[in-house]
Amino acid sequence: MAHTKAQKAVSGNRDSRSKRLGVKIYGGQKVSPGYVIVRQKGTRFQAGEGTKLSRDFTIIALKQGIVHFTQKYGKKYVLVK
Predict the structure, then answer these.
(1) Domain-embedded: residue 47
(2) Domain assignment present for 64
(3) What residues pair up with 38 in beta bridges, in sequence order?
(4) What is the pTM of this model?
(5) Predicted confidence band at 6 (pLDDT cuts at 50, 70, 90)?
C-alpha cells in the first residue's frame, strides 16, 4: 500500500508556471504597430519614442520602424525609429 498521506509529499509539490518575461524583439529588428517588444515586471526598460508602456509594464510598438535600445542617465530606453 503506497500511501503518502502521512508524509504530505504530494500537497506541497506544486510550482507556478513561468511568466515568459524578457526581450521579445531585439535591436535592429523591424516592428509594426502593436508588436510586443519587452515583457517585464516593473520598469527595467523605459518606453521611449514610438513605444508605449502598458499597465503590466509591457513595452509595445506604436509605429512601424526599427527597434533601438539606448541608455541615458543610467536608465535603459526602448525606441522605434
Answers:
(1) yes
(2) yes
(3) 23, 59
(4) 0.80
(5) low
